[in-house]
Every structure is written in C-alpha cells, then in structure tokens.
Amino acid sequence: MTELLDALGLTQSVALLSLQPPGWGANLLRGLANSLRIAAGAFAFGLAIGLAGACGKLYGGVILRDLLAVYTTVIRAVPELVLILILYYVGTDLLNQAAAALGYGRVELSGVAAGIWVLGIVQGAYATEVLRGAIQAVPPGQLEAARAFGMPPLTVLRRVTVPAMLGHAMPGLANLWLIATKDTALLAIVGFSELTLETQQAAASTRAYFTFFLAAGALYLLVTLLSGVVFARMERWARRGQPPVGGSA
Amino acid sequence: MSIPLWRALLMPHRLAIAAVFAGLAFWCAVSLRWDWIPDYAPLAVEGLWRTLWLLGASVVLGFLLAVPIGLAQAVGPWFLAWPARIFCTVIRGTPLLLQIWFLYYGLGSLFPTIPWIRGSELWPYLRQAWPYALLALTLSFAGYEGEVMRGAFRNVARGQLEAARAFGMPRLTIFRRVWLPQAVRNVLPTLGGETVLQLKATPLVATITMVEIYAVSSRVRSDTFIVYEPLLLLALIYLGIAGVIVAIFGRIERQVPARGG
Amino acid sequence: MNRTIALAVAAVIAATPLAAQDAVRIGIAAEPYPPFASRDASGTWAGWEVDVIEAVCAAAELTCEVTPTAWDGIIPSLTGGQIDAIMASMSITEERMQTIDFTDAYYRTPAVIVADASMDIEPTPDSLAGKILGVQASTTHQSYANEYFADAEIRVYQTQDAANQDLVAGRLDAIQADSIAMSDFVGSDAGACCEIKGAVADDPAILGRGVGAGVRKGDDALREALNAGIARILEDGTHAEITERYFDTSIYAE
Predict the structure, then answer these.
(1) Which chain A residue's Cα is nearest to B238?
(2) Which residues contact B12 (CB under 8 A, 6 or more apart)?
C-alpha cells in the first residue's frame, strides 16, 4: 500500500488529507457536515414554502397568485449569489425587528441558521413550481371523491393530495436537493465555514490546491451519487400502488 | 388565455399591485442613496458588456460541445459514451464555484513548476482571468446541456431516420438534415431556461478577478459602504437581462415550425 | 407580511443554537491572513491579532467570541448586527469613519509593493505603469492603488492569499499589501520567488492612521471598553510580549 502511494507520488496528499492534525481531512469533513446541515435545513424550509406557495398558486385568490408569481419569477431570474447577499443582510434586519416587536432583545443568528434562511427562500421558489406541477398531475377525480366524502380541506391535502402527488414531485425534488447541496458552496463567499471555504482555507494554508480541490470535488460527487440512489428508492416508495408511468425520458 | 395582454394588465387588483410596487420603487428612488451612480456608470457599462459577452460565448461554445457529448451518450460506442457520461456526472455533481477555483487556482499553482510556460506564446492569455472563466462556464453549460441533448437525440422518431436511410441519404447528411435539426428543436423550449441559469452562474467569475457587472457592484460596496442600493440595482439588471433572454428564445421558438403530430 | 416571514424563520431556526447573548462577538476575516490570523489543521484560529484580541478582552474584562466573517462584507455585518466589533487588521480611514467608529490604533505598519526578485520594479506610479498589480478587495491598498497607480492594470482579489498565490504563479507583476504580512510571505517557502520592493509614498487620508477595532456608530460603551483594554496591554507590556512571539521589530510606531 505504502509503496503504491509512493509510486504514484501521493504520499504527501494522503498526509495532507489525514483526519488527524496536521492533516486537514477532519476540517473538510466538518465542512461537509455543515454543508449538509444547511442543505437539509434549506431543503425542508424550501419545501414548506413550496407547499404553501403551490397551494396559493392553485387555490389562492388573484392577488395572492400574482404576488407568488412575482416571488417565483424574481427568485428564479436573479443570481443566487446576489440573493444570498441581499437576504443575508435583510434577513438579519427583519429578524431583529421582529424580535424587538415581540419584546426580545437582539437575536443573534448563527451561521447555519442564516444559511438555511437564505437558501430556503431561494429553494422555496423552485419548490413552488415543482409541487404545483405535481399537484396538477393528480387526477382531479381523486380530490373530488375525497371532497364528496366530506373531508375537510386540510385532511384532503394531508391524506390525498400530498401522498398522490409525491411520486410526480420526486424527480423535481431530487434535483432541488442537489441544487441545495451545491448552492451551499456559495455561502463560502459570505464567509460560512462550509465545505468550499474549508477547502479554500486548507488549500491556501498548505499550497496544495490540486489535492484539496480534488478531494472536495470527490466529496460533493459522493453526496450527489448517494442522493441519487436514495431518491430513486424514495420515488419507488412514493409511487407504490400507482400505475407505472410510461414514456419517461 | 384569449384576453389580450393589456386587458390582463388592467384588471383592478393588478393595477393595485402595480401601484404598490410603483410606490415601493418611488420610495427606493427617493429615500435610498443613488448619488454614486454617475461615478460608476462607465465601469458598470463595461462590466455589463463583459457579463453579456461571457454569457453569449459560453452558451454558444457550450452548446457546440454539448452536441457531440449528447450524441456520444445516446448512440456512441462505450469508449465514447462512458467518458461523456462521467464528464456530465462530474460537472453536474460538483459546485461550479469549486470548478472555477480548481481551474484558476489549481492550474495556477502548477505554473511555477513548469518554467518554460512563461516563455510560451500562450502565456499572455494564461495570465488573464477571462480564459479560465470562459472555459469553466463553457464546460459547465456543456455538462448540463449534454445531458439534455442525450434525451433529445434519443427522442427523434426512429421512423424518420429509417425513411432518410431508405432514400439513400449518406449518414452525415442524415445527421445534418434530419437528426440534428429535430434534436435541436426538441431542446429549444428548455434552452431559454438553461441560458437564464447560465446567466445566474456568471457572477461567480468575479471571485477570480474578472470585472463583470457583479464585481462592479462589489467595488461600489467596498468603496462607498453602501450595501443595499448596488445589490438592488444589480438584481434589477439581472431581472432585465433574464427577461430579454426569455423574450428572444420565445421569438426563436415561434419562428421554428411546430412539430407535426 | 415581513413580520410573518420573520416569525416563520424564527420558528424554523428555533432548533439551531443561537450564540450566547452577552458575549462580545469580535469579527475577524474568515480568510487566512497570516501572520495575524489564520487557521491551523485542528480548526483553531491563531496569530498575532488573535492573541491581541484575547489580551485586549482580558484586560477590558469582556467575554469575547471570535467570529470569522467574510472580509468583503465585514462592515455590513457590523452595522447589520451579526458581529459587535471588527478586529481584522482594519486601518482607521476617514472613508470608513463615515460608516463606523474606531478605537485607538493597536498597530501601525506601512504599505509595500512586492514583486518577483528578478523584476525591476519600484513602488512608484511611473515604475508600475502598465504592470499588473494585485490588491485585496475592500482594503486601503485597493483605494490607494486606484488613486495612485491608475496606469497599472489593477486586479482585485477576495483574499490576500489569492493575490499572493497569483504573484507566485506569475499572473501578477506585483502586489500592494501590508508590510508585516508581506515580510512573512516573502520569508516563507511559497514566497521565495519574491521580495519587498519598498514602501509606497504615505497618504494618511487613504492609508489611514494605523489599525484599530471598528465598532458600530454610537456604541461608545464598547469603544471605551476596548480603548481601555488596548491602553492597558500597551502599558503593561503584554502587547510587546505578543509582538516578540511573532516579529523581530515593534509594530506599534508612535
């Protein structure tokens, strides 16, 4: 093993990536854990916004529909980097105002929470469109049947609409999750210590740019590939009992 | 859908919303600081030009690269299909920011170890930031669009290709006259959206010293400590460019005859 | 509407830990800036300025929490309330004082030009005309270069380290930066190619009156407390002691 590494000239890279200091491996993994926490939080927050937004777009009044259209259009046309900067500063301001209005003092937003807030708002716009499409794909007869049985609207949503549309929404949601994991890299520019910033710090401190960028790339790729497997299983689960879909590209 | 646009815009609630937004815009114009604009206008125009130029070049070059990548994945032999597949997976599976830094700083860290490179004719280009920015954005677009083109090539009806072959068309002619045009038409509706996504990726090149429109706004922020105003104006500019892109692609799509059946 | 959103966010993030309420959050740049502040492999921040922060806080009897923040947005982070003070080698300039307040200076160093040892470059506008000059974004060096070296092609980097890296790679002809950070750099293996070509002509209006801690406008209590801390460590020799650990010479010139 050692000889093979020597032959490939990789001994130094392995030492740099070791999990014990002076290796920087543990830092990269810590960054990855932060990235995944932010991505998971933003994805969940985005889903909540998306579900509310999709329902608003489908069943809401004219004003709500137009406002949601403005939200999704603006978010999807402006670069994430610009949105992150705007939302990062505005978000903290808003939170402090809300806290003041409720009689609390200054609230201090942790880096992870700020990241979740910022990326969640961005994810929400895309999730709104994904979920709207999925809800529209649910056969209307199913909803009418539920309503005919006198189910209250929220129960219809929980028991019929959401389970029935999940299968349709899965590919779009899988895509959104991957966008969320990759967008966390942008937070490096605002100074959050996630995987990309940890990589930059490690690379700058050791001058081993190639080693660390490749290692970080491999970690991101691993997340992508594993997510693909997980989401494929989830889609099979969500589609259980539904007729198979034909003509998938 | 049959209501004309101006009637749709004149619905009472839309007028109310428009009034609210106009009020907001007015408030922004009056109570925020905009006195820095004249000082930075020339720089901003230059930056805007760089953004557009980078966007256009990377979309065109990326698309040209996406055609063979899509083709290799759709019908190529394994030794072409596999590299194309891996390329798309890597590009789509890692953050663009990391790719840009890898190309710029990663390659840059090799330069001191290759002394002759400073004497080579490529050196004046390798010293600048834009070749790396263009390369990274082109590869990224090719990676995403290559995946789309794979589906597009596969979705061209078999019968058409068989018919062309039956007429004795040479293989290259079939590709040029039948297969490629139909595949391109298949992806046309998604191309506008992909171009907007590419626009949203351009500000990342500011991190490797390219002075495009985002970098100009950062410069305003660092020179004057005005935070919100340059960012708001920047968001508005991107919104405008995205609108123009959508309109252009909508126009192209309307001019291409619709698919029969 | 805004409040509802804010409350929803507050609910979402309620699960994530918020920082302690009473600690003073001292913002340092999240990007490595050796020898003043950089991170080692075990994840802890170390350097001259980190030690000084600790000493000042101890002397001022404050509980401090070092909070890494992106340098490029560090002033908005201060005014926006994400941090309470900036101690990130930030020079006290008129321009910045329109937005934030500063404590007294805790170090003073000149700005220098660094270039490849084989290059014949002097720290003058004539010599730098037509050359590619790298500076870090949002620094006094950027403002100075824009003012005095307008005939050079100025490239702006997010971090000092990226500029150093590009000088080594040969993409830059020269960089302008702080003398201490640069003597550390040219003394390292990575910076062996290059040497300090001399200090630029001083312009206190742009380069400032030394490095101080930035606080929000009107936050006089914190400013006074930090001033007392800085005065104390200068007086009792702690400042000199920390400096000796890192440098050969004093970096507090009257």
Answers:
(1) A78
(2) none
